[in-house]
Specification:
This is ABC transporter substrate-binding protein. By secondary structure, the chain is an alpha/beta fold. 32% of the residues lie in helices and 20% in strands. It contains nine helices and 13 strands. The protein is globular, with a radius of gyration of 20 Å.
Length: 294
C-alpha cells in the first residue's frame, strides 16, 4: 500500500476506522503497543488502564523499550490532550466487551476519536487466543508490517511440545490466580481468558473455581485456594497484583508456595506468536517437570 493511499480497518467494535493515508505514528494501550512492537511497529506513545499508575507496568510491556517511548498516563488522570500531544495518526487499544475502549474513560475515548482514528482489538472471553493473535496480525498487516517469517513455525513447535507434555498419565493440577493481598485471592475462571482456554485445549489440567458471581474471577480466601491443592500456580505478575513476599503471613499461602511451582502469568501479555511461543514453552517445561515428580 502506498503511503498516500486511503487506509481503513474494521475494528472489533464493528466500526470502520479510516484515515487519508496509512498511519505511521501509533499511540497504543500498553498491551497493544507491546503486540505492535512484536510486529515491527514502534509506538510513539503508550497509555495504561485504571489499574496502572503514573509509570508503565513492565509486566504488560513485553519487549518494548520503555525508556525510549513516552508513557502518557493512565486511568482518570489520562487526558485526551496528553494523547494528542504525541501527534498520533492512529490510536490502538483493546476491548473486552466489543463496545468500550479499555483503558480510556468513555468521555476521553469520544473526545479522542473526534480528532484521530481509534482502532480496537477484542481480547475478551468471546475470542480464542488464536483469533486475538490473528486480529492483531491483521491490523499490523494493514499498517504494512508483520512478525518474522519463522514465528509461525516456532509457535507450532511450542504448541506441539505442550501437547506432548500434557499427554502422559500424570496430569498436574494448574491454578491461575491474582493475589489481592494476604486475606483474599482472585481465582481465574479458565473459560474467561483466551490464554487459559488455549492451555486447556492443549491438555493442561486447569482447575475451575467454585461457581459464583464473578465472570472472570472467583474472589475467595487463601484457605479455599489451598484446598484446590495445585501442583502449578500461574501467578499474576502485573503491578496491581500482590507479590509472594506480601502473602507469607498466611499459612494457606505458605502451603501453596511449598507444594506448587510458581509461574509468572500475565493476563495482559502481548498477543503475538513470539509471546505465545514463550508462554507455551514455559508451561510445557513446567508441566513436564511436575509430571516427572509424579
Amino acid at each position: 500500500m502506498e503511503r498516500n493511499t486511503p487506509w481503513e480497518f474494521s475494528d472489533d467494535r464493528g466500526r470502520l476506522v479510516v484515515a487519508g493515508s496509512r498511519p505511521l505514528r501509533i499511540v497504543a494501550y500498553i498491551q497493544a503497543g507491546a503486540t505492535m512492537w512484536d510486529h515491527g511497529i514502534r509506538p510513539v506513545g503508550l497509555f495504561g488502564s485504571q489499574h496502572d499508575g503514573a509509570t508503565p507496568d513492565p509486566a504488560k510491556s513485553g519487549e518494548l523499550p520503555l525508556s525510549e517511548i513516552p508513557y502518557l498516563g493512565s486511568g482518570a488522570a489520562l487526558h485526551p490532550d496528553s494523547l494528542l500531544e504525541a501527534e498520533p495518526d492512529l490510536v490502538v487499544a483493546v476491548t473486552y466487551d466489543g463496545e468500550q475502549v479499555y483503558g480510556l474513560e468513555q468521555k476521553t475515548a469520544v473526545e479522542l476519536e473526534a480528532h484521530v482514528p481509534l482502532a480496537t482489538v477484542a481480547v475478551g472471553p468471546g475470542r480464542s487466543l488464536a483469533e486475538v493473535r490473528e486480529r492483531f496480525a491483521a491490523l499490523a498487516g494493514s499498517l504494512g508490517r508483520g512478525e518474522p517469517l519463522g514465528a509461525a513455525r516456532e509457535l507450532d513447535a511450542a504448541e506441539d511440545a505442550l501437547r506432548q507434555a500434557t499427554g502422559g498419565t500424570v496430569r498436574p493440577r494448574v491454578l491461575a490466580l491474582s493475589p489481592a493481598g494476604p486475606e483474599r485471592v482472585h481465582l481465574a475462571r479458565p473459560s474467561s481468558w483466551p490464554d487459559l482456554r488455549a492451555l486447556t485445549e492443549h491438555g493442561v489440567g486447569l482447575l475451575e473455581p467454585a461457581a459464583g458471581a464473578g465472570v472472570n474471577w472467583s474472589t475467595v480466601g487463601w484457605a479455599e485456594a489451598a484446598e484446590l491443592a495445585p501442583d502449578i500456580v500461574l501467578m499474576d505478575v502485573r503491578a496491581n497484583a500482590a507479590r509472594p513476599e506480601e502473602l507469607r503471613a498466611d499459612e494457606h499461602w505458605r502451603a501453596i508456595e511449598a507444594g506448587a511451582r510458581l509461574l509468572p502469568w500475565n493476563p495482559e501479555a502481548p498477543c503475538s506468536r513470539r509471546a505465545h511461543t514463550r508462554f507455551f514453552t514455559l508451561v510445557a517445561d513446567t508441566v513436564r517437570e511436575a509430571a516427572a515428580r509424579g
